[in-house]
Structure formats: structure tokens, C-alpha cells
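Q: Convert this sequence to C-alpha cells.
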Amino acid sequence: MTTGVSATLRALHDGERSLERDLLAVAERHRTDHEVHHVATDLARWSREHTARLAETGRRHGLDLPGPPDDPAPGALAALREKTAEALGRRPATGLLLLHDLRDLHLAAVRNSLHWEMLAQAAQALRDEELLELVSRCHPRTLRQMRWTNTLIKEQAPQLLTAL
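A:
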């Protein structure tokens, strides 16, 4: 495998791990917004699957990429985040925090999408069917993650930004 493909696999793997962690944090932080909580949790599962697939593909190409992190055990920190989310409820400051979180999630998903696209182009140039299959399975989900954050930003921004 070329150095460029290896570096892209590694960057994408790190990006998917990070996006999963961030989606789960947003889901907890905005627990009282049921749509955000449930959809972000589902989207985090996709990034977790991407991480596992990237680790498997990396191993076949001589890279040592860790699999997804262990499921976080519910503990004191999770309980604290849940109580904080309940206390914040739906105040204007919470809406601005949501917009900030959605922006960060969107940018992380865009970064991953670009890495998926770069990997697809390299796979086509190398005629690597395995790599193309990986991209074909995972990239559409990343695009859906981007569309979800973008849609919520479009829905929430007018009301939240003009209500101040």
C-alpha cells in the first residue's frame, strides 16, 4: 500500500473515532432534545462501524489501527451530563450550544467525507476493489451525517440567532 493511502486510512480512522465520540457527547449534552439525542446516537454507531471496517482494512494492508473504543460504561460522568442536560432544558443558551455543537459535528463529518473521497480516488487509481467496496459502504453514511447536521442548523439557526 502506498504511503499516501496509509496516511489517509489513518487520518480517516482517527476522524471516525473522533466523530463517534463527539456525536455521543452531543447526544448526552442535548438529552432533553429527543431528536438530537436519538439521531446523534444512531449516527455515532455508524462512525463506530466505519472505525471497525477501517481497522480491518488497515490490518490487511500492514497498518495497526485500533478497533472502536470499548463502549463507555455508564458512570458518574454520564450521570452528571444527564443531570446537566435536564437542568439546562431548552433555554436560549442551550440553543446556541446546540448550534455550536452541530457546526463542529458538521465540520468533522465534512473532513471525513473528504478523506473518503480521497480514498475512493486512490482506490480507483490503484484498481483496489476492496478499498472501493469499503468507501462505497461507508461514505454514503458520512454524507447523511453531514446532511443531518446541515438540516438542523438550517432549521434552528433563524429562530435561535434572531431571538437574542
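The chain has a mean pLDDT of 88.
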